[in-house]
Design a protein that fits this description.
By secondary structure, the chain is α/β, with parallel strands linked by helices. The chain is 37% helix and 21% strand. A hairpin with a 2-residue loop joins strand 15 and strand 16.
């Protein structure tokens, strides 16, 4: 490497360690800690399906990795395995502490051996009526191959034998159905509330499944496979793309295994038999664990009516600019002023209401929107389809390759077409990640554009937990820029000519270079230069090199990065003067904010893009200015509050040790930024 650079994988695992810190923090409410355990596990699953799978492919390509300006993938894989093993032990410790704390609060997770006698009849009936029909064992036979198993679901490997007698045992694999709830709340007995994993309810009922066979001992062990999630396809975005995507999704289920998690209590001979049958015997693929897998399901652990074990719910904050929305309507308000929504502090419902108003407004002629990820039961999609049914011309750019949402987006595309919505199915060679809405309204004989530009998806589910920003504006030149981008989606030979917005893959990299260079030039002229940057990920070599150059020149650089952070800070680094923190708290920090201080005349931009190579080179991303001075100052204040965090901020140091910033001794001096931001936004109402 020409410059100091940390692998994306190592820095991402360090981020997931920060999630795990939340799961082990006794000051975090108990049920929230359990949710963080689920988030950690879900993150790790995706990490293996995507990042580890990519590393494994790179190790098979010889020295090709040297052309990609990345660390040696073989070394990175060894680092990954060591970090995952260490975090696995920390996860189990945090999980055991959570179980003990649940028990102290009258909640107990029990297995099939600990079900009280007075509940066994209830459990037998539950198994027969709710579970049994889903269970279809696969018998393992000596001379027969096992059919390729699905990605992600868990399986029970079952050994059937006779108590006290010899004879050859039988073996089976049985999928734990994902259609069933992972946790079942049992009828309350006394003061205790019992909960069971569905895995143990299945174990409880194994005699019902295998009782007709000549066995009476049923030993079972969990095992789970994670497969390469990459989908290969070309750039033919015609109707045949639907067929190719369907084939790709099927191929994902049959991708090469990149991880097998199994119960560490699995007897070695039985484990070897299963692994041999499944052709999974390579050591770098095997990860021994605890009795239960798919711990991502802990995200949906039942709340049991125990609000005292959760973060307190806050009342939504009214955006002052929209206080007369019902009387005036969005369009009258936006003609007077821009509006900035901060999720989840402000209601995402306001965006849906804007769409609904547009769908019935007689002056609205057209609506365009980009779609990357939608909620499962999306009111956004319903509003767009209603607009089409009301005679508006509606066009939706559906991104068909949004990872793990491919199938859902194909379904939405079909639903849109059935409702009369025009669908643009992606852009050949590029992934559209921009978050854009454009409404064309005919006013006094001419067209006026109303735009919504966001840092996050138009998704009401994630908007309740993702911290993002959405700018609503009737600025005519911004509207013209957004319209030019939508024209590019339909006519990809037309490179958009933009005045205020910058768009990858065309000019986003150059824009960032020029803004950083301006701060460098200011310092060289004897004036202060400063950059304040908030992103999810930073792992683009060229951008890191420019930040190093700026730091060496004397530009003050402050960075807030949530996850990947490949820049090396600290002593003996080109970025010794760069300060960086990461914040993990009750909401997922997802917004991208860029503040170029510009010798006391700051320019503030929001963006859909992180600082990764793909965001600059192979995606359609937008960066847009906040031109309204009051809203600009609002975002500067937002950043400063986060920069002041001394409760949930971790210092992103040279070794990514995840050390917290020193916490003040007096509570009144503590700044927990997500709560402080909520207080700040309330003060504006």
């Amino acid at each position: 490497m020409k410059i100091p650079f940390r692998s994306k994988e190592v820095s991402w695992l360090s981020f997931n360690a920060r999630v795990l810190q939340e799961a082990g923090d006794p000051e975090v409410p108990l049920l929230e800690r359990i949710k963080f355990l689920g988030i950690y596990s879900s993150n790790l699953d995706e990490f293996f399906r995507v990042r580890v799978a990519t590393l494994k492919r790179l190790t098979q390509l010889g020295d090709y990795w040297k052309e990609l300006s990345i660390p040696d993938p073989c070394i990175t894989l060894r680092e990954v395995n060591a970090m995952v093993a260490k975090q696995g032990r920390e996860f189990n410790d945090a999980y055991e502490r959570a179980l003990a704390d649940l028990k102290a609060n009258g909640i107990e997770i029990v297995d099939e051996h600990k079900v009280p006698a007075d509940l066994r009849d209830w459990l037998t009936n539950y198994f027969r009526t709710e579970v049994s029909s889903y269970l279809m064992p696969i018998m393992l036979k000596a001379n027969e191959d096992v059919p390729r198993l699905k990605d992600q679901p868990m399986y029970l490997a079952i050994r059937l034998s006779r108590k006290g007698k010899g004879g050859r045992p039988a073996h089976a694999l049985m999928e734990i159905p994902g259609d069933l709830p992972r946790f079942v709340v049992l009828p309350k007995t006394g003061r205790r509330q019992l909960v069971m994993y569905i895995d143990d309810i299945i174990r409880f009922g194994l005699r019902e499944i295998f009782g007709h066979l000549p066995y009476d001992v049923y030993d079972s062990y969990a095992i789970k496979f994670t497969r390469d999630a990459e989908i290969q396809f070309d750039d033919d975005f015609t109707e045949s793309f639907y067929v190719k995507m369907s084939e790709g999704l099927k191929a994902r289920e049959e991708g090469l295994p990149v991880r097998a998690n199994y119960d560490a209590a699995f007897p070695k001979p039985f484990l070897n038999l299963v692994l041999r049958k499944l052709k999974l015997a390579t050591s770098d693929t095997l990860y021994p664990g605890a009795r239960y897998h798919n711990r991502k399901d802990l995200i949906s652990f039942p709340k049991l009516g125990r609000d005292d074990l959760l973060y307190p719910k806050s009342a939504p904050i009214l955006n002052q600019a929209l206080k007369n929305r019902e009387k005036l309507g969005f369009f009258n308000i936006l003609r007077r002023q821009d509006v900035l929504l901060h999720f989840p502090y402000h209601l995402f419902r306001r965006y849906i209401e804007l769409l609904r108003e547009a769908s019935i407004d007689p002056l609205v002629q057209e609506i365009w929107m980009t779609q990357y990820r939608l909620a499962k039961k999306s009111f956004v999609a319903r509003a767009l389809m209603a607009a089409a049914q009301n005679g508006k011309k509606v066009t939706v750019l559906v991104e068909p390759t949004a990872r793990f949402d491919e199938k859902a987006n194909m379904g939405w595309a079909d639903a849109y077409r059935a409702a009369g919505v025009r669908v643009v199915l992606g852009v050949p060679g590029l992934k559209v990640h921009s978050k854009l809405l454009l409404i064309r309204r005919r006013e006094h004989g001419s067209d006026r554009y109303y735009s919504a530009l966001g840092t996050g998806n138009f998704n009401e589910d994630s908007a309740s937990i993702f911290a993002d920003h959405l700018l609503l504006t009737a600025h005519p030149e911004i509207g013209a820029d957004v319209a030019a981008i939508f024209r590019f989606f339909e006519h990809t030979y037309l490179r958009p000519t933009l005045k205020h917005l910058k768009c990858a893959p065309f000019d986003l990299r150059l824009f960032l270079k020029e803004k950083i260079q301006r701060e460098i030039d200011l310092v060289r002229e004897g004036r202060p230069g400063m950059l304040s940057i908030k992103v999810n990920n930073l792992s683009d070599v060229e951008t890191i090199e420019r930040l190093y150059e700026a730091a060496r020149a004397g530009v003050k650089i402050r960075m807030i990065a949530r996850s990947m952070f490949s820049l090396i800070t600290g002593p003996d680094s080109p970025a010794e003067s760069i300060e960086a923190i990461g914040i993990v708290d009750r909401f997922l920090e997802h917004s991208r904010v860029l503040i170029f201080h510009n010798d006391g005349q700051p320019e503030v931009y929001l963006s859909s893009a992180d600082f990764l190579p793909r965001n600059f080179d192979t995606r359609v991303e937008t960066i847009f200015p906040v031109l309204d001075h009051a809203l600009r100052d609002q975002l500067i204040r937002y950043f400063e509050i986060q920069w002041s965090d001394n409760v949930k901020a971790r210092v992103l140091d040279r070794d990514l040790t995840n050390e917290y910033r020193p916490r003040p001794k007096r509570r009144e001096e503590q700044v927990r930024s997500q709560y402080a931001i909520e207080d700040y936004l309330r003060s504006l109402t």
